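Deliverable D4.2, example record:
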Amino acid sequence: MDTILAHVNQFRAENLTRFLLVIIVGWLLGLATAQAAEQTVRLADMDVTVWSQDRDQSVKQPVIIFSHGFHGCATQSRFLMEAFESAGYLVFAPNHRDATCHGGKARWIDRPDVPFLKPQDWDETSFRDRGHDIRRLIETLHQDDRFRARVDWAHFGLAGHSLGGYTVLGLGGAWPSWKLSGVKAVLALSPYAQPFLVHDTLAGLSATVMYQGGTWDYGVTPVIRKSGGAYDRSPEPKYYVEFNRIGHFAWADFGRSAARKDIIAYSLAFMNHYVKGEPADPLLTQALRGVAVFRYDSELGNNGR
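Output generated by the structure prediction step:
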């Protein structure tokens, strides 16, 4: 009997070990898959986070470059970057010089050279280094063996939050000397647009723009929404979505927002149509329940607001 019990216990132990090994291996494979979808690489002397599906390296993908907010970092809006990646985009997000997280060297106590409350003192030299970062990244991607065969520059968009919104608007043509060619769409998420209003340069935008704001985003959204604001002064085609009960950091991962699902939905509808060239999603002419203000003026029509 003791011998039988010993064999039974040994059998149980062996199977428990196998079971645990299966669990561990499965966890490691899942971790490897997650890491494969998001990786940080060195490009143009910057730490750049890349989101990409595991695809044939010879298959070209539409590309989105994301610019983070002041003292944010490349991974600050992971929920949205992952949504773009899942939709088939190759996404690049550099750490700018003012990044404080994800390896950024800046400090929270650092202040901008020109205060945000003095947009009249801003000009094309203000945070020009951010524009240079995007340009250097693009130049490097054209040469880098890991990515040059994969990036489809015929389908290229920019996205940015806060000061990143300022950055991508500038590159879209709001600062004439920053203007990038080939940009199909600019997704400006609660963007710091005040300098462009003061200098009246938003008419220089050459890419379709979508502004996003929130009813609790008191420092930025009113500048976009107001009569004669950023939306009004931008050339068509253009879109404006203002979500109910969200503030300035709803586009970052700092806290969960009830609007995330809608933020993703409108962002994908916009990029898929103007970057990928897909048929327009009906969402581009509709306000969801969680949207306080929705405006559009494009080839799809306008809602007269």
